[in-house]
């Protein structure tokens, strides 16, 4: 085993030296002398307990390596990048490599063979450390081209290094989307053909192929086979330190989880032991465990040497990661497992003042700024984290923000000019922040545009071409706009029905206004004393979708003034109604493995077990109280404080959180 072996995974890497690390992220902290953003490397031991935090190292790395296109793969502790027609091998993301003197080896882009391309890379593989004289680098491009070279030879003869690539055109279309790995058993680079029916092996001079005969195949129920037929599948070849070769079939399916669009997540693994030309299905790889990722080479270790669980697959996909027991195909989410490429679920706790902005924008010219404070809300005694991210203090004022949706806040700054800002999104760095200026609001007759009830967006990013922003003002006006359009214009709607004047909107299809009449609402039976108390409460009704289960809920909140906490409003009771196929709202005290999040932002619903939250519960926060309401027990746990920005920020793709192009001029 090499001293350090890294497997790059879309935002996370596995390191197979004791301890085995996953690269989590890089926290931006400054700019280097070359004007590149650098940040502290954040890693996590894969065997860390749920209570342990990620490790923030002093090691500084370029933050662009953490973007989805920052690297093209990794092998043997080196990441590969493709910039300006140059292939780079660098050890920046190795926690054990030098911070002050990172190693970087540059190679020209391989020559593109006829009817091939060298822009999109499937993955890379190294036969050993690129500093070894005999090391060979393999770059597998999407399509027919596989390119090999000796990095050290190219480094020693830079004037001739363009001739050091050996470019191979693969004729079999079954390998066009395959991933390359280095086989220590064959001393060649190997790939699995589509479907896992055959392999091909290459080196600088030779090529050979081999077909598999599936001798045994696990029996599945018809429902399981139907599920797998809907999935996408990838095949991975991995060699064990004990000499065995395994083939893993990785099935992924689209799941709805939270307010984001559907993302592809793990569904099932199938493992085969390959011996000669035979492939035998197996549920037991004994004392071994396998590591798979979407970008790096797979690898296999003896579990006992690393304190890991045997007969398991540790995997990292684009949007989830976890640990799967091969024996029963049961998955255990690791801490943060469903958020490999997503921002954390949290709520805004406040801002800790730290100075004045030196940026020449805004009014005042140098506004007060502070470090953003968030909490991963699990209860009234949850922890609070002060981030390095700085935001303007005026966003925390009573009128600093008017609402939020998908991590974007709506403000009326600079004398009432509407803006969408992502300053309060903890998944966006200072340098990547975005501010979208919107046209002046137009007030309809007998309406107002100063007091906002709520805002909602139809998709997770206002940069999406089809995204629609809805702003519901107190009173009859509802205003819609497409933020991504060049010539933005508000579509202003005057609602005639007074029952909607104080309503909050829900980001569904906002293209055409429509009314829906519900057949009936079935409410719970109450004692006279209970009814009298609830009848004296202030009520608020909100709609929320569960994309996990494709259900619609109506939540009715009852709040009353608390004489023991300076007269602050307190949550008294929460009712939940589920809509059936006849548009009837039925009272329920059981929403299963779901939890609902209510705040001044758009409400959303998540699968509780995927986010380590309490199932069948309501998480709520307003300007004076936050807490959890357990529906079945009618039990509430809460605490009181002043929350200046009472927003839950839902999990979202880092691609959406960081796709901004900077500040638009107001």
Automatic annotation (TrEMBL):
Positions of the KIB1-4 beta-propeller domain: 59-322, 392-629
PANTHER family the UniProt entry points to: OS07G0183000 PROTEIN-RELATED (PTHR44259), PROTEIN, PUTATIVE (DUF295)-RELATED (PTHR44259:SF93)
InterPro entries linked to this entry: F-box_BR-signaling, KIB1-4_b-propeller
Record-linked Pfam families: Beta-prop_KIB1-4
Species name: Brassica rapa subsp. trilocularis
Higher taxonomy: Eukaryota, Viridiplantae, Streptophyta, Embryophyta, Tracheophyta
UniProt-recorded name of the protein: KIB1-4 beta-propeller domain-containing protein
Signal peptide coordinates: none
């Amino acid at each position: 085993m090499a001293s350090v072996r890294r497997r790059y995974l879309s935002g996370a890497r596995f390191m197979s030296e004791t301890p085995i690390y996953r690269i989590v992220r890089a926290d931006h902290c400054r700019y280097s002398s070359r004007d590149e953003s650098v940040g502290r490397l954040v890693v996590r031991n894969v065997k860390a307990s749920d209570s342990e935090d990620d490790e923030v190292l002093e090691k500084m790395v370029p933050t662009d390596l953490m973007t989805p296109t920052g690297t093209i793969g990794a092998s043997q502790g080196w990441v590969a990048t493709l910039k300006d027609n140059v292939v780079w091998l660098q050890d920046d993301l190795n926690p054990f490599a030098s911070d002050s003197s990172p190693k970087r080896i540059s190679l020209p882009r391989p020559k593109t063979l006829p009817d091939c391309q060298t822009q999109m890379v499937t993955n890379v593989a190294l036969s050993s450390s690129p500093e070894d004289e005999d090391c060979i680098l393999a770059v597998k491009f999407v399509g027919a081209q596989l390119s090999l070279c000796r990095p050290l030879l190219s480094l020693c003869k830079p004037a001739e290094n363009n001739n050091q690539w050996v470019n191979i055109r693969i004729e079999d279309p079954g390998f066009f989307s395959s991933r390359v790995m280095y086989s220590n058993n064959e001393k060649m680079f190997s790939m699995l053909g589509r479907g896992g029916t055959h392999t091909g092996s290459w080196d600088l001079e030779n090529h050979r192929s081999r077909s598999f005969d599936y001798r045994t195949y696990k029996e599945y129920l018809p429902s399981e086979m139907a599920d797998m037929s809907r999935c996408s599948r990838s095949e991975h070849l991995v060699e064990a330190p004990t000499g065995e070769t395994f083939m893993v079939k990785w099935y992924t399916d689209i799941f709805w989880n939270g307010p984001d669009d559907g993302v592809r997540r793990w569904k099932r693994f199938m493992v085969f032991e390959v011996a000669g030309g035979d492939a035998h299905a197996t549920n037991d790889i004994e004392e071994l465990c396998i590591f798979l990722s979407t970008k790096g080479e797979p690898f296999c270790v003896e579990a006992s040497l690393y304190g890991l669980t045997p007969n398991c697959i540790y995997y990292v996909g684009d949007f989830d990661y976890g640990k799967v027991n091969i024996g029963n195909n049961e998955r255990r989410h690791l801490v943060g497992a469903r958020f490999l490429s997503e921002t954390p679920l949290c709520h805004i706790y406040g801002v800790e003042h730290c100075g004045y902005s030196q940026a020449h924008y805004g009014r005042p010219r140098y506004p007060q700024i502070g470090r953003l404070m968030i909490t991963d809300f699990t209860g009234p005694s949850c922890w609070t984290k002060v981030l390095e991210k700085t935001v303007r203090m005026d966003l925390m004022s009573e009128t600093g923000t008017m609402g939020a949706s998908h991590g974007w806040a709506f403000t009326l700054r600079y004398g009432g000019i509407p803006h969408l800002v992502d300053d309060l999104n903890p998944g966006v760095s200072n340098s990547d922040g975005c501010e979208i200026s919107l046209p002046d609001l137009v007030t309809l007759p007998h309406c107002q545009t100063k007091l906002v009830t709520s805002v909602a967006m139809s998709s997770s990013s206002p940069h999406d071409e089809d995204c629609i922003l809805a702003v519901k003002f107190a009173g009859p006006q509802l205003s819609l706009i497409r933020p991504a359009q060049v010539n933005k214009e508000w579509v202003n709607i005057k609602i005639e029905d007074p029952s909607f004047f104080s309503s909050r909107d829900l980001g569904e299809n906002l293209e055409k206004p429509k009314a829906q009449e519900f057949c009936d609402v079935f409410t719970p039976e109450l004692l006279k004393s209970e009814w009298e108390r609830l009848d004296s409460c202030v009520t608020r009704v909100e709609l929320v979708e569960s994309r996990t289960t494709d259900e619609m809920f109506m939540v009715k909140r009852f709040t009353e003034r608390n004489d023991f906490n300076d007269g602050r409003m307190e949550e008294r009771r929460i009712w939940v109604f589920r809509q059936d196929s006849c548009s009837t709202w039925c009272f329920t005290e059981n929403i299963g493995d779901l939890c609902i999040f209510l705040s001044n932002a758009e409400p959303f619903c998540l699968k509780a077990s995927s986010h380590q939250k309490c199932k069948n519960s309501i998480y709520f926060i307003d300007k004076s109280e936050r807490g959890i309401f357990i529906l079945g027990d009618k039990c509430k746990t809460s605490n009181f404080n002043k929350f200046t920005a009472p927003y839950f920020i839902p999990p979202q793709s880092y691609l959406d959180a960081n796709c901004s192009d900077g500040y638009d001029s107001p």
